[in-house]
Fold:
Amino acid sequence: LSGRAKDMGSAAVLLSIFVALMTWGILLWSHFR
Structure:
């Protein structure tokens, strides 16, 4: 259970980082377009 929880935690961290990068990318792209 702990291993699966760790996998879920790392997946959540990666997902949040990906969403943050996508948000910044869209903001910067729309700003400098």
Helices lie at 2-32. The two ends are 47 Å apart (CA to CA). The mean pLDDT is 94. Residues 12 and 33 are 31 Å apart (CA to CA).
